Amino acid sequence: MRLRNVPKSLEPVRNNPSYVDRPDELKGKWSEYFNNSNSIYMEIGSGKGQFITTHAKSNESINYIAMERYSAVLGILIKKVPEEGLPNLAIIDADAENLLDYFDDGELERIFLNFSDPWPKKRHAKRRLTNIRYLEIYKKLLKDDGIIVLKTDNQDFFDFSIEQFELAGFLLKDITYDLHNSPLVEGNITTEYEERYLNQGLPIYGLTAYKLNSYDLGLV
After folding, report:
1. How many domains, the chain?
2. Residue 2 resides in a domain
3. Active-site residue set
4. CATH number, domain containing residue 211
5. First to last CA, the chain
6. pLDDT tens by residue, the chain, 220 residues
7. Cβ(151)–Cβ(179) below 8 Å
8. CB 19 within 8 A of CB 26
9. What is the domain range of residue 173?
């Protein structure tokens, strides 16, 4: 169960230099915000932040955006960020429904979808972050050589995602129904949820989705 919003939990988040209060004002200007032209990677639904903060601390030449809509979870995430912030990390309190308000076409190079809410009931399929309506938004925001990396513990959600990616015209590679017992696990950075599932002996499903035109252009 995900934590609900708790107003006071955002206070330490807002006090951290990596927090961006008005991401809508940075649409088309994220390179200016980071003060460089490095690639921008975003995790949608960063949760408690282990994945995105580990990336940011390990790869200073890449800019990262942690997007999470639950303030209580952001309060946990911020504890993994130094008080002085990280120069290559931006944290935004936002919902995927509003992505087009925050980013311009082609502004992102990579999107991570880690253990997104599977919304298991069929009537909620449109809420899944891999529903084609979201995938069409991601395509607009990704560069021509952009990719989406997905990990989940829910096989029904995974199979649904494969269908939706194909409908949206993505090229799928590195599809695995057991990430941690495959060569693809090399270099994998885990999330808190991922470690919990692994401790329970559950398989992790994963894939990489490429914008089809990027493949045609020989960029992948």
Report:
1. 1
2. no
3. 117
4. 3.40.50.150
5. 37
6. 344 454 556 788 999 999 999 999 999 999 999 999 999 999 999 999 999 999 999 999 999 999 999 888 999 999 999 999 999 999 999 999 999 999 999 999 999 999 999 999 999 999 999 999 999 999 999 999 899 999 999 999 999 999 999 999 999 999 999 999 999 999 999 999 999 999 999 999 999 999 976 445 454 4
7. yes
8. no
9. 7-216
